[in-house]
Amino acid sequence: YTCSQCHSGPDVPAYKIYSVSKHGNIFASREKGWDFEAVPWKLGKDLTAPTCATCHVSLLVNDEGAVIAERSHQMSDRLPWRIFGLIYAHPYPKSPDITNVKNRGGLPLPTELTGEPV
Questions:
Q1: Which of 36, 58, 63, 109 has the smallest number of Cβ neighbours within 10 A?
Q2: pTM above 0.70, yes or no
């Protein structure tokens, strides 16, 4: 079974929403080059965009092997966490060149982690 088998109906559209998102499009175009058998998943090496498993269950490490998220078999364990991305809607940056967008912490994000636009 995959996530899409249960999460694609009108009452639970999570997979359909994911599949048309930026991350879903990256997955669709690059999945053949990703190593889904690797344990743990090294972000940026084994995969380059989040999947359902990335955010909900998989063991994730950075380049140095430091654990970012422990493996879990309880799908709801990470629901209250924001492992990746922004939890707030935000205005588009004023310039289309987003290579220079950084928040006060130096992260390449259009908002502070509190939601305040940069």
A1: 63
A2: no
